[in-house]
Amino acid sequence: MRGFVSLEVIRERCVGAAGETSGRAAREHQENPPTYSRIPSPPERMSVLQVVTVATRENRAGPAVADWFLHCARLHGKFTVDPIDLATVNLPMFDEPKHPRFQQYEHEHTRRWSATVARADAYVFVTPEYNYGAPPSIVNAIDYLNKEWAYKPVGFVSYGGVSGGTRSVQMIKQIVTSLRMMPIPEAVTIPFFTQYVDKESGAFAPGETQATAATAMLDELRRWSDALATLRR
Predict the structure, then answer these.
(1) Phi/psi of residue 30, each to 5°?
(2) 142: which residues sit within 8 A by CB, 6+ positions away?
(3) Does pTM top 0.90 for this prediction?
(4) Structural domains in the chain, sorted by start
(5) Neighbour-count burial of 137, counting CB atoms closer than 10 A to its CB (0-12 exposed, 13-18 middle, 19+ buried)
(6) Which 8-state DSSP code applies to residue 130?
(7) Alpha-carbon gap, residue 126 to 228, rounded angstroms
């Protein structure tokens, strides 16, 4: 019949026209690619590392050891470094009437300590060893709080005699795990530490072995801090 066009012919013409149009559009896209405004990413927040000097007694070596490690941490460059000295914090023996998990603190010194600990993403405890164990100052400081410590990694710089303070570290590890902290295996252990203290200036400078260990521990702390960030939100 004159003037009759089959469906097959219509389909072929439509497909052909669409293909031609699509091909032309593709060529134009290649010749004149569109430009898009790039939305800048927000600056990455540096994780906060608190370096806690544990010893509080007079004539302590802790500040000298902590100063050395603080220098290592700042050179490392992957944390905002926040030095904390328990002698300056000066907490009394734990005296809150309610369990720390409620965070219903009655004393101002507890509220200050809570705010200090809460702002950190990771910790390094610079600790000696007392009588095969941890100094009471760090046990007391840990006991004051609960949720503020949770889901954060902790490393250790320990110093002492032949054991290098390792028995103190082992005791603290048992405590912090009950608070959902992650004590990492990498550590800086300094036996016979007095040999590295300058007799005139009092400066502490152990050597390459401890510096290498410090870098390895800081690298691992950053990995764990990033990995646990979701749980801290």
Answers:
(1) -70, -40
(2) 149, 172, 175, 176, 179
(3) no
(4) 47-232 (3.40.50.360)
(5) buried
(6) B
(7) 22
The first and second tokens of residue 55, run together, are: 């010893």
Buried b (16+ CB within 10 A) or exposed e, 184-221: bebbbbbeebeebbeeeeeebebeeebbebbbbbbebb
Sequence-distant (≥ 6) Cβ neighbours of residue 64 within 8 angstroms: 197, 202, 203, 204
Pair 52, 82: CB distance under 8 Å: no
Q: State how far the Cα of 217 lies from the Cα of 53, in Å rounded to an integer.
A: 17
pLDDT digits (tens, 9 = 90+) for 36-68: 445 444 456 799 999 999 999 999 999 999 999
- 72-102 tens-digit pLDDT: 999 999 999 999 999 999 999 999 999 999 9
Identify the three-state secondary structure at position 158. strand
Contact 176, 142 (CB under 8 A): yes
Helical H segments across 32-107, by residue range: 62-76, 86-89
